[in-house]
Predict the 3D structure of the following.
Amino acid sequence: QVQLVESGGGLVQPGGSLRLSCTASADFFSAYNMGWYRQAPGKQRELVAAVTRGGSTNYADSVKGRFTISRDVAKKSMYLQMDNLKPEDTAVYYCNLEWPFGNHGRDYWGQGTQVTVSS
């Protein structure tokens, strides 16, 4: 079973920064598409940032220019650098690995880490 372990969440003031980390046990780590999702109370889980196995990235409009997704294949880790945080960024953040093979692929999720932006 692929396991993802997240860290880096916490309480931060508006305008502050956090860096989320996600470390995987997966073999063939570089073959996965990877992403960060978040879910606030009463809202659907949404894609925040993603990087494909080909290296292209995309971001939700609400975080463009503030968040950066990256990965380190050697460390089997992915990161989300969050700058200029806003209260509306408050949510539980989840890392995701998508194995894009087979009939429908497979998804693996981290345990979630709480990010709270408040003064």
Remarks:
- The chain has a mean pLDDT of 96.
- The first strand starts at residue 4 and ends at 7.
- The radius of gyration is 14 Å.
- Residues 42 and 91 are 11 Å apart (CA to CA).
